[in-house]
Design brief:
Number of helices: 14
Structural class: alpha+beta
Order of helices and strands: EHEHEHEHEEHHHEEEEHHHHHHHEEEEE
Helix content: 25-40%
Radius of gyration: 24 Å
Distance between the termini: 34 Å
Length: about 475
Amino acid sequence: MACSYRSFGIELECIVRHSEPASSYRQLHTKIARHIRRLTNLKIIHPQNPQFSGYLYGEIQRKDWMIVDDTTVLVKIGDFRYSREREHYPHMGSREWARLWCGAELVSPILTENNWEEVEVILNAIQTPPMAVIHNKTTSTHIHIGIQPHSAAPLDAEVGLYDIKRVAAIYYIFETYLNLLCPDHRVNRYCRRTRRSHFAKRNTQREFCQAIYELQRLGDVFDLMNCLGIEGDDELLTGRYFGGNFANCVNVWDKWTIEFRSHEGTKNSNGLEFWVKLLMRLFDEAVASDWDYIMYLCDSSESFNAEGMCGDENDRELYAWRVWVLSMHHLFLLFLAGPILRDKYMDPLAPQALEENILSQPPQMTDEEYSDDNVRPVREEEMLLQNLINYMTEREYKFSPQYERFMEGNFQDWSSDNVRDDLPGDWVDYPNPSGKFLITAGTVGERCLWPWPWSSSYMWEKPNLV
């Protein structure tokens, strides 16, 4: 498959146990680090290591994995009540059993796709007795993608700003869809949405992307994308707890990365690998895109009425939501495909045919194709996109409860004689499978609330969008 030249880092949050008792979480982390070292031969910097403080505060360049405490990972008694591991300790009560566990975060050094096996062996090691691992809603997986290609000449601030602005715009455009590929609980106070940031709520999608284009400093990207509000004498309140965290872009000589915090805690190395590939592909295509194409994607996604439609599980009970998902799925795939595959397979009259054509290609490369320098890059692109399409579809199915029923055609057809002029101007419309538009929303003060399943719905005829 096509391989990205970007570097990345990964932070694995989890709740871990070691069968040997420990007097503190630091001692337990040390036991876990030594256990992983025995199984994998990878050096893990632990709290009793002399280099731990330097690694933790960035005084030493990280060349090894590190295990640290994470106060956002909460160990709850209810997490262990039905755990299979619990069956091995029938004499222990739930509270006593919970004391054997603690939250931890495994932080990687700088990695590339070529050494992904390090992540795999780490995930396997923490599941090997005498260790065990579980995840709950407080655990997550953070991915840092490097702005600078791995092993390339250092970028200056101007070129770095050029790339970061494009990535920021593309992330903003597709943020709602990317959130859909992750569980609902990953939208929380430690993983806020850029679309709910101070400036995004006060501008249209096009105006926000135009503001990104006009930024002149690296720090301005962080201020715009991760702004919580304004206080005092126009002082910006910014924070790193966003799904797309641009705080590390401020200092060129620090970690020059963008952090993605939306993925849930996981033990599945295959799924995690495709999430990293998806983010790397987003980076590569964003940097290669010109602003005319980025604004085209912005206008297209805005026409799907994407704004404000994520984060409420009740929205996903509406089949109209699923139509929006399919529309954004095809638009995101159009972006990921890149110019080579778009020129080869794109049909302007049938955008959905792009996915069908890519999936119809053989999943493996023949020896003759591999030896042909002109054919091999195209086949690598096709194989990568095939895997990403399957991954996206699987995640959509997993986190969209109505997916299966919708694909079977068992959807409810809303109908009404109401017309748009009869409805309040602050109500919102978006596509649904019937070919009509559903208008359903309510307001409390100035805040728009998406409706509960039992709220009223209205329909009116409207020409199909092109």
